[in-house]
Give the backbone structure.
Amino acid sequence: MTTISDPPKASFQLSMLIYDTRFRSYTFQFIALILLMLLIGYLGANLMKNLSDQGQNISFRFLQDPSGYDINQRPIEYDSQSTHLRASIVGVLNTLIVAFLGCLTATVFGVVAGVLRLSPNWLVRKLMAVYVEAFRNVPVLIWILIIFTVMTAVMPAPNAFRGENATSSMLFDAVAFTNRGVYVPSPVWGSGSMVVVLTFLASIIGMFYYRRYATKLLYDTGKLLPMGWPSLVILFVPSILMYFVMGQPISLDYPELRGFNFQGGLHIRGSLIALWFALAIYTGAFIAENVRAGIQAVSKGQTEAAASLGLRPNRIMNLVILPQALRVIIPPLISQYLNLTKNSSLAIAVGYMDVTGTLGGITLNQTGRAIECVLLLMLFYLTISLSISAVMNVYNNSIKLKER
Amino acid sequence: MSRDNLAFVRSHMLPEAPPPVAETGAVKWLRENLFSSVGNTLLTLVSAYVVVRILFGVAPWFFNGIWDSPSLSACREMLDGRTGACFAVLTERWNQLLFGFKYPPDLYWRPTLAFVLLFVAAAPVLFMKYLPRQMLIFTGLYPFIAFWLIWGGSIMVPIFALLGVLLGAFVYWRTLTISAGVAVLAGIVAALVFWWASRLVTAPLGDVLALQPVVSRDLGGFMVNMLLGVVCVSLSLPFGIMLALGRQSRMPIIKWICVVFIEFIRGVPLITLLFVANVVLAYFLPPGTTFDLILRVIIMITMFSSAYIAEVIRGGLAALPRGQYEAADSLGLDYAQSMQLIILPQALKISIPGIVNVAVGLFKDTTLVSIISMFDIVGMIRGPILASTEWNGVYWELFGFACLLFFIVCYGISQYSQWLERELRTDHR
């Protein structure tokens, strides 16, 4: 055994690259790098050869060509003369729409089911367990197809709503469930509606300020202001007043049966609903487990300690249990949101035109630019995932328990 | 104090009374679990109503079900207006649902046998404590037997594949004294060289003990889901461990290769990787090479799940107390030994629930191959069965059957993992 004061005399030998632990790591990294380079070079050379054999090249110019296909759900102006780029953007927006709706609904389902799984009520507990197990153990693709089948094969055709003895009727005379999708009333923004909307936004901010003020007052002076009903008043009363002051500028456009189909209102397609609800219910089952685990992770001693300080049950929940449970719940919740966004690419199975359906589907098949399309598609999803994980990391660091 | 100015003194024992009705047995249970408060009672009533509605909706449909009929219209005639399921589609298309529509019918025994043997092969791994160690030999042989059974062809191919693996393992074992990395590399190179050389031998011996060959295109049905699930999960375990160790490595280049790979794969949906397998991968191979779609899909799904398993195992490695690493070092173990004997057994034990989650998720995701027009069970249902004139319009029976199959497998796996967690618990609580 050598010591530092007695360094090895032996000069460098080639065998030390393998046998000497000081150099071995360099050898390995060098070999790994070489292998990686060789692999990339080999794949790249094959790619070049294949492309030149088929007279193709890598180019993104096809994005500027007219797409020549229609998209049935267009959040922005689009027709078949628009470019492939615009088609992809429509797809991206559609992905974001379904992901947003899905995340929102999944959270509601998940929180409700997760809390109910801890309910003292045996029947409710068991029902929720059945929901969670049934949805977690069956592929989401099958759920999407099942709900899509409900939407297209079970719902009545629009003509079932017609005539004296119609077999179907609209819900509250406003919502029609048909096999072509769901028709709901859509708001019509008259002149002056901007003012109402702005008032509403302002009251949301106002509500937060009130709550913050009340909390501060409580912590500073111990004076307890009511929280619940003033928040609701601040939230709704000014907007409702403004609505009548401006002469009811916002009205609803009800769907109406005209000709062979419903006209007016907002048309939500069966494919969107199938995707939205299947993703929401499926992911909701996972979120329910996270919520349950989070609540159970807060030890019972915390509840008891808070109770012995004299806090009332809802304050115990708000001030002691939830802040600790959320620390456990939120990271897996965000990763479920990510999963939902990635699973929304299954839209292609029901013909919902998300980015996988436009860029990775029709554009790819029409232009034959497989490499470019798949590359862009991956980049899009990668951007979303990486940015969400970046936000996650910031959040995780901010809530990390400050120990030692 | 005399006896007279006391109001009442009991002079004998009361007979034992039964506890109040509301405090025992079923009544107590009902009160505590279903009707403890007004809100709870309401919840109970609502959920009981939902359950009853569902049961009354489904029960007649299920019990009126017709199990024997040649087509949907014949089925409807038999039902004569009653509500009832048409399970005949399952009995009539049973083989298609399980084996696909192109697998030669007289060879169904082969995948069935492979499926049965799967349990024999998996048992010694799953129930390590209760079965003799020698059975693991069969587990080692199983992949080659299953390959031979499902795809057929000469037995020489799996035998030489097996010999290559054995040679690789031998070389690994002999060079392990130098260093683990060298040994892994040497083993892989030896196996590859052997396989490359063995093509000279297997070609002339093409019909020794040959089963009728079946091409991959002809595989289908639930068999494909099982095949992809089993193959990809078992392949991705070693890759996942390697990636996780690589990500923890102190060598920056190796670490960054692993990080980039893992983050990239985890950032994209599986469906885009399947697109890669379907349309892009061919561009990156030497011109003129064609290899099976199913093989390409296996490669992509394995990459996908290894990245996820690597993250799970990394969590397990990070959860180990630092002292375990230091203890291994102070015993004088080298990297391979300390990983093999100290770190990985504990880290893998912590990771079991996560690994099982990944495995279940992966098995469910094998249905995605139906989107790149492979005929797994979902592909079979949506394609040949629902498009046929006989069964156009039978949705619930088919989807219900697919749900049931997946539920049985996935629920079974998760129950097993919970059992295993209890089994491996060493803290004796």
Notes: Chain B has a mean pLDDT of 86. The first helix of chain B runs from residue 25 to 33. The radius of gyration of chain B is 30 Å.
